[in-house]
Amino acid sequence: MARFLFVVPPLVGHVNPAAGVAAELAARGHEVAWAGHEELLWQLAGPDALVFSCGLPPGAPARPPELKGPAALRFLWQDFLVPLADAMAPGVGAAIDAFGPHVVVADQQALAGGLLAEARGLPWVTSASTSAELVDPLAGMPKVAEWVGSLVADLRTRIAGGRGSADPRFSPHGVLAFTTRELLGAATLPPRVRLVGPALGSRPSTTDFPWEWLDPLRPTVLVSLGTANTEAGAGFLAAAAAAFAGLPARAVIADPGGVLGDVPPNVLVRPQVPQLPLLTRVDAVLCHAGHNTVCETLWHGLPLVVAPIRDDQPIVAAQVVAAGAGVRLRFGRADAGRVAAAVEEVLTEPSYRRAAETVAASFHAAGGSAAAAGHLEQLALESLAHVKF
């Protein structure tokens, strides 16, 4: 059996797909370890997960909610990705030394994973938890692409002794992309991208939920802006809650920041929700177009209303609309009336549900965690075949 080391950033949406793949590998008898934020990993991958703790950037600045476009991209790289890689590098190196992986699986935003794996001559695979990078968002911005390249080169010098040349976001050994063509569209992909569909595994959860509140005779919509948009989302969540005052549907709103006050009686507000089980009981989802939420929704054949905020979300929202599986709102202009109209449209127009079910069928056929694990096993076999005893 082989040993696999998963290197992930401290972001729920990036850990969850990897956790599904890791669980599949463990079920097949392989050894799995993690390098990342230990508390988050024990929460999402399970309390028995073998975790090598990695540092976080000291005093990391909070991203201003108004940042968009090039300014948001600059912040992402200069103030998050590169400092995170510097902070994680010692822990990743220690994990490689102690665990001795045959294959490293490095998230696209955990740059230290790919850089150190390549520097040590280990086969490594990129985990692309969002499809945004796959469609080359910097294609029309050559100067920005050059600037990003210089940041990566400097980072490689600092943490990997200048060894290696591959882009840490796109391993030459393979990229696991948790989507399919039915959602991604016809964009030209980098080499060795494996479209495996969503990797949905069982997730440890201590979230209580009043399941009896749901009414099977009335449609229910899940409203969520993910875990990283609390500051930016207060006004949007308030508008969403108000929108349901005039709708026959019900809403379950995830409000981790506790920003909502009084809401209509057909709206349930919870700080956390058991998203995967809940998706089997709702009729549509209103969200920020985060890749994981979108894919989990479409896996269940449910239509979407998407209101992208920043980063990859506009790209993912455009994919949803192009697939015919949802309606897009402008986040900053999504008042109660616009939200109500969009929700009513996806609930009453059957074409959205049919398109979502088409994407769902492609997701199920792609294989998800099992397909991803198969690709990783093959790479491990190739690696072990070259080991001299």
UniProtKB/TrEMBL annotation:
Q: Enumerate the Pfam families for this protein.
A: UDPGT
Which InterPro entries does UniProt cross-reference here?
Glycosyltransferase_28, UDP_glucos_trans
Q: Where are the transmembrane segments?
A: none
- Highest taxon, organism lineage: Bacteria
Molecular function in Gene Ontology: UDP-glycosyltransferase activity
Give the UniProt record's GO annotations in the biological process aspect.
antibiotic biosynthetic process
Protein name as catalogued: Glycosyltransferase
Naturally occurring in which organism (per UniProt): Amycolatopsis iheyensis
- Please name the taxonomic classification of the source: Bacteria, Bacillati, Actinomycetota, Actinomycetes, Pseudonocardiales
